[in-house]
């Protein structure tokens, strides 16, 4: 699993236009989050920090995925286009029986995980399992996003 000072590996995460076999693309209710418009690979080429959340609101083992995603949504509204926000589900199916590429690509063993990169795609902060909006704000501040 990548850590601080590692380059976040880019891959073609599911988007609204191409789910890449992940159904549903987002288990947030009542509507999917808006963090599925570009792939992680695309986001990492934009020259701005990236916040990449892997977690499944509907099937989270820790019960913290939905609050983590909701907090990230609120922060993204404040941050605007100064950073890219990407969310990927843990499972490729709604029955939560098939692990999605987002998990295998990064060799994750738990959820949720939030990676915050600098503008060059280097991981500046990684938040694991339980974190709140203040910790996310602090992670973004570490890459110059206040």
Please supply descriptive tags for the structure shown above.
146 residues, alpha+beta, 4-stranded mixed sheet, 23% helix, globular
Instruction: Report the biggest beta sheet as strand number plus sense, adding barrel if it closes.
Output: 4 strands, mixed
Query: Globular, elongated, flat, extended or rod-shaped: what is the shape?
Result: globular
The average pLDDT score comes to: 96
Radius of gyration: 14 Å
Order of helices and strands: HEHEHEEH
Percent helix, as a range, is 10-25%
Q: Which percent band covers the strand fraction? A: 5-15%
Low-confidence region ranges? none
In total, the number of strands is 4
Strand order of the largest sheet: 2-1-3-4
Helix segment tally: 4
In angstroms, what separates the terminal alpha carbons? Answer: 27 Å
Structural class: alpha+beta
Topology diagram in text:
Blueprint: H1 40-43, E1 50-54, H2 65-79, E2 84-88, H3 101-106, E3 113-117, E4 123-128, H4 133-141
Parallel strand pairs: 1-2
Antiparallel strand pairs: 1-3, 3-4
């Amino acid at each position: 699993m990548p850590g601080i000072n590692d380059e976040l590996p880019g891959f073609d995460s599911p988007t609204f236009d191409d789910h890449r076999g992940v159904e549903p693309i987002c288990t947030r209710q009542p509507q999917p989050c808006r963090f599925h418009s570009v792939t992680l690979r695309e986001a990492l080429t934009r020259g701005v920090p990236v916040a990449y959340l892997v977690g499944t609101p509907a099937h989270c083992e820790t019960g913290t995925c939905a609050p983590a995603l909701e907090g990230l949504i609120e922060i993204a509204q404040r941050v605007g286009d100064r950073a890219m926000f990407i969310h990927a589900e843990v499972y490729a199916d709604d029955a939560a029986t098939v692990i999605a590429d987002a998990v295998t690509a990064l060799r994750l063993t738990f959820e949720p995980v939030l990676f915050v990169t600098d503008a060059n795609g280097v991981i500046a902060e990684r938040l694991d399992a339980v974190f709140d909006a203040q910790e996310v704000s602090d992670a973004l501040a570490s890459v110059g996003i206040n």
